[in-house]
Specification:
This protein is about 55% helix and about 10% strand. It has ten helices and four strands; from the N terminus they run ααββααααβαβααα.
Length: about 220
């Protein structure tokens, strides 16, 4: 999208991110994103079709959720997910944050949606975001503009997440269970940003694949 975060909030942070030195590794990782995302999209097309039909049959349209997120250098984009909550849930949940938001969200999951969320299959449509250049396969998870504004004020280093594309998976997700706060999750994200490399990218994808398979089999 043409709109940028600097037009609406925390503008100085987006300029800092945009002015960060470019690294050759980002070109290499982008090429890997294109290759893997294209292959995964082709392989998962039958899964995509089946899940879409199940959502439509069990809870009606829409099958996909589109939500505004903050991307690289503060650009806004629409993230794609399979819909896991009841229709119009975002309107009902809008006023809440933190623990209250988590609690109320639990009551909004559809039966199929809860399984999709727990198995992480709700994330499959984001391969399209990767192909479009809005996301990477590995990076900090994308965040809503409203939450970014709050966290950027609470955590001075939070703006550094905007240096790279947000990811379908990342360090904070692979290491889930060890972090207990947003500050610790941010530490994982900043570690990726500082040390990002092809081997680290591939290892993160492998760890994520094993975790998703394990969770899916358990369900």
């Amino acid at each position: 999208m043409a709109q940028r975060l600097e037009d609406t909030l925390v503008g100085g942070y987006t300029r800092l991110a945009a002015d960060s030195p470019r690294r050759r590794i980002d070109i290499e990782l982008r090429l890997l994103d294109l290759l893997f995302a294209a292959v995964f999209m082709l392989l998962l097309l039958p899964v995509f079709a089946v899940i879409s039909l199940l959502i439509l049959a069990s809870d009606g349209p829409p099958a996909l959720y589109r939500g505004e997120r903050v991307g690289r250098h503060g650009h806004f984009f629409r993230i794609l997910k399979f819909r896991t909550l009841r229709r119009d849930a975002e309107t009902r949940l809008g006023p809440y944050l933190g623990a209250e938001l988590v609690r109320r969200t639990e009551t909004e999951y559809t039966k199929l949606g809860r399984w999709l969320k727990e198995s992480q299959l709700d994330e499959v449509p984001q391969f399209w975001n990767v192909l479009r250049g809005e996301m990477s396969l590995v990076g900090p998870r994308p965040i809503r503009p409203r939450f970014f504004a709050e966290l950027a004020h609470e955590l001075p280093s939070y703006w550094q997440r905007l240096v790279v594309r947000p990811g379908l998976t990342g360090f904070a997700q692979v290491r889930r269970g060890y972090e207990t706060s947003m500050a610790e999750k941010l530490a994982h994200d900043l570690e990726w940003i500082a040390d990002r490399s092809v081997p680290l990218y591939l290892r993160t994808l492998v760890f994520t694949a094993f975790r998703v398979l394990r969770q899916t089999i358990r369900r």
